[in-house]
Amino acid sequence: MPRIPPHPERRPVLVTGASSGIGAAVAVGLAEAGYPVALGARRTAICEELAAKIRAGGGEAVALPLDVTSDESVSFFVSGAEQALGEIEVVVTCAGEVTPENSYQTSTPSFEVQLQLNLVGTQRFVSAVVPAMAARGRGDIVFVTSDVVRLPRPRMGAYVAAKNGLEGLARAMQMELEGTGVRASILRPGPTLSGMGSTWPVEVLQPVLDDWTRFGLARHDRFLKPRDVAAAVLAVVSMPRGAHITLLEIEPEAPLREGER
Ligand SMILES: NC(=O)c1ccc[n+]([C@@H]2O[C@H](COP(=O)([O-])OP(=O)(O)OC[C@H]3O[C@@H](n4cnc5c(N)ncnc54)[C@H](OP(=O)(O)O)[C@@H]3O)[C@@H](O)[C@H]2O)c1
Questions:
Q1: Ligand 1 contact, 65 CB (< 6 A)
Q2: Which atom from ligand 1 is nearest to the alpha carbon of 22?
Q3: Interval between CA 16 and ligand 1 midpoint (Å)
Q4: Measured from the CA of 95, which atom of ligand 1 is nearest?
Q5: Which has the least CB within 10 A, 20, 83, 147, 229?
Q6: What whole-number distance in Å separates Cα of residue 118 and Cα of residue 80?
Q7: What distance separates the 2 farthest-apart alpha carbons in the chain?
Q8: pLDDT at position 22
Q9: pLDDT of residue 261
């Protein structure tokens, strides 16, 4: 049986949704850990600012425009990143969005838009990179999903459907890629303070939070920070070869109970 070689020293990373929240923190966190990073999102100016900060701190980073709903944009991003950083070793898919509405009141076009971004866009992106990884016999794909797969939340049915689809896709891909050296991993964060939901007016946000309480989904008031999720991503991709974290769920730790400090 051939021995599995260790990771190469240089491991360029593609991060989708790198202009905000979890994606931005992943790009910064991996760059700090020595990974060259390509930051992609539609708001290229924000990605460029982040990349400049990373470079100023001694890291290696490039920012390129990316819209995961467009074939042309994905292929421009992947080839530009490869030219700038070399062969891609790691992909972290963070691009995503949620629209707060009851699924039975969601128009079919709105439902489709959410599936196109969160599910189809991720498949489009990953399939632009995985064949070359499999040919090289190594690589890491991290699918950022959500704990809504384990605990579905109301008022976001399209998002719940898309994230379930994404985990199904990742599970199928894990089997397809078995023995190729490419590790596909599911990274499932719980509630995280990010751009997501930050612009919802209170009359939209409050019923969402009230429903979390009503359905027992708000066990406490703590949220993860994007950098916590970035640390989990680093744990997944830095796992030595020969081991494969197939699923990692990260939740905010509960506040300590009175009298237990
Ligand atoms: N926040 C949470 O509580 C939470 C929990 C579990 C999982 N997640 C997941 O974590 C991931 C990151 O979300 P976040 O919480 O960090 O939210 P966020 O701060 O709103 O970031 C979302 C990112 O997605 C990008 N994006 C949106 N549409 C895109 C497109 N068509 N092409 C490329 N990029 C696009 C946005 O960039 P542009 O607008 O510049 O394109 C932005 O960088 C998502 O997949 C989300 O489902 C979040």
A1: no
A2: 16
A3: 8
A4: 24
A5: 83
A6: 23
A7: 61
A8: 98
A9: 61
132-144 per-position pLDDT tens digit: 999 999 999 999 9
First-to-final CA distance of the chain: 52
The token pair that represents 138 in the structure block: 């190594």
Q: Which protein residue's CA is at the shortest distance from atom 46 of ligand 1?
A: 96
